[in-house]
C-alpha cells in the first residue's frame, strides 16, 4: 500500500479539472489542490460561474474552453456525468494527458470500450476513482479475504441520495443504482472472492436491484443495491461466509478522508512513472462489462 506520509520528491503533477458540481467542489478540487503530489492548475465547466467558484479557493485558473484546459495541464481529472466523461476523456487521451476518471467510465459498454481504446492507443496513464479502494481499512479487508476460503457472500449498498439533494442528478435518476453503486460493489466482490465469471440482475435499478454473482472460485455472492430508500445513514456492507468465522466489511464506518491522500499519491506516482496501477481504465471496462451483463439478464 502506498505510504502517503512519505516525502514527495518529484514536481507536482499539474492537473486540470473538468466539472464544477458538488462532487467536484467537495472532493476533486480540494484533494488535488492539497498536494504536494498534485497541483490544481485550471477548472473548466460548461457553466463558467460554477467553474470560477470551484477554482477560486485554490487560485486555479478558469479555462474558457476544454482545449484551453488541456493546454494548461499534464493530467485531467473528471467530475462530470458518464456520457460527458466518455466523450471528453477520449479527447484528453488523444492529447497525451493522463486521466483521473470517475466511475462508471460511460453509460454503456461500447462507449467505455472506445475510451479504453483511446487510452491504449495514446499510451497514457489512467486511474479510476473507486473511493473506498484507496482506504486503508478496505485494503486490510481485501488482504484478509485472500486468507479465507469463502463459499458465499452477501453485500448491501443502500442510500437515499436519489430521493433528493445534490446527488439526485439526471443520469443517476435515469439509470439508477447499478451504474452508480454497482462499480463499487462488483469491484470489491471481484477482489475479495476472485474473478466474477457471471452476474445476473433482477429488479429495477431505479428502485432496487439484486445481483447474483458466480465466481471462478466456485463462490456465489449476492448484492442488494438501491439509492431510493429512506435509511438514516447509508448501508455499505459485505459479509463473507465459509468454514471460517464470518469476515465483515462495514464501509459505512470508513473515514473517507483517509482515502484521498492515498489516491492522490498513487495517481501522481503513476503519472511520474508512466505506469498505471491496478485500478486503471481496464478495471473500469471490466466493471462496465459486468454491469452490462447484469442488465442483459
Descriptive account of the structure:
This protein folds into two domains: 13-131 and 258-280, 3-Layer(aba) Sandwich (Rossmann fold); 136-254, Dihydrodipicolinate Reductase, domain 2, CATH 3.30.360. Helix content is 40%, strand content 23%. The chain is built from ten helices and twelve strands. The strands form two sheets. A six-stranded parallel beta sheet has the order 3-2-1-4-5-6, with helices on both faces. Strands 8-9-10-7-11-12 form a six-stranded mixed beta sheet, covered by helices on one side. The mean pLDDT is 96.
Write a brief structural summary.
Helices cover 40% and strands 23% of the residues.
Q: What is the CATH topology assignment of the largest domain?
A: Rossmann fold
Low-pLDDT regions: none
N-to-C SSE series? EHEHEHEHEHEHEHHEEEEEHH
- Overall structural class, as computed from helix and strand content, comes to alpha/beta
Question: How many strands in all?
Answer: 12
Question: Which characteristics define this entry?
Answer:
single chain; 297 residues; alpha/beta; Rossmann fold; Dihydrodipicolinate Reductase, domain 2; six-stranded parallel sheet; six-stranded mixed sheet; 10 helices
Write the layout of secondary structure elements.
Blueprint: E1 13-18, H1 22-34, E2 38-44, H2 48-55, E3 61-62, H3 66-71, E4 75-78, H4 82-94, E5 98-101, H5 109-122, E6 126-128, H6 136-145, E7 152-158, H7 170-175, H8 177-193, E8 196-204, E9 208-215, E10 220-226, E11 235-241, E12 247-250, H9 259-273, H10 281-296
Parallel strand pairs: 1-2, 1-4, 2-3, 4-5, 5-6, 7-10
Antiparallel strand pairs: 7-11, 8-9, 9-10, 11-12
Amino acid at each position: 500500500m502506498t505510504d502517503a506520509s512519505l516525502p514527495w520528491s518529484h514536481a507536482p503533477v499539474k492537473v486540470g479539472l473538468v466539472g464544477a458540481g458538488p462532487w467536484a467542489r467537495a472532493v476533486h478540487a480540494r484533494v488535488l489542490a492539497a498536494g504536494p503530489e498534485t497541483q490544481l492548475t485550471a477548472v473548466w465547466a460548461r457553466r463558467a460561474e460554477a467553474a470560477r467558484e470551484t477554482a477560486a479557493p485554490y487560485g486555479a485558473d478558469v479555462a474558457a474552453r476544454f482545449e484551453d484546459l488541456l493546454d494548461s495541464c499534464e493530467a485531467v481529472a473528471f467530475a462530470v456525468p458518464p456520457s460527458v466523461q466518455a466523450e471528453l476523456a477520449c479527447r484528453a487521451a488523444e492529447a497525451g494527458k493522463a486521466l483521473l476518471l470517475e466511475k462508471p467510465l460511460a453509460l454503456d459498454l461500447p462507449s467505455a470500450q472506445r475510451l479504453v481504446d483511446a487510452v491504449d492507443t495514446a499510451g497514457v496513464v489512467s486511474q479510476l476513482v473507486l473511493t473506498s479502494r484507496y482506504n486503508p481499512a478496505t485494503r486490510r479487508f481485501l488482504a484478509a479475504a485472500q486468507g479465507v476460503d469463502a463459499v458465499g457472500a452477501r453485500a448491501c449498498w443502500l442510500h437515499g441520495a436519489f430521493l433528493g439533494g445534490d446527488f439526485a442528478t439526471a443520469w443517476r435518476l435515469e439509470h439508477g443504482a447499478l451504474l452508480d453503486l454497482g462499480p463499487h460493489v462488483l469491484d470489491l466482490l471481484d477482489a475479495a472472492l476472485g474473478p466474477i465469471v457471471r452476474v445476473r440482475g433482477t429488479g429495477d435499478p431505479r428502485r432496487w436491484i439484486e445481483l447474483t454473482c458466480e465466481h471462478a472460485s466456485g463462490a456465489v455472492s449476492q448484492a442488494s443495491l438501491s439509492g431510493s430508500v429512506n435509511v438514516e445513514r447509508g448501508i455499505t456492507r459485505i459479509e463473507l461466509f465459509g468454514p471460517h468465522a464470518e469476515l465483515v466489511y462495514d464501509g459505512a464506518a470508513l473515514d473517507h478522508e483517509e482515502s484521498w491522500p492515498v489516491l492522490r499519491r498513487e495517481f501522481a506516482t503513476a503519472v511520474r512513472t508512466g505506469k498505471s496501477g491496478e485500478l486503471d481504465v481496464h478495471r473500469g471496462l471490466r466493471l462496465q462489462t459486468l454491469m452490462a451483463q447484469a442488465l442483459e439478464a
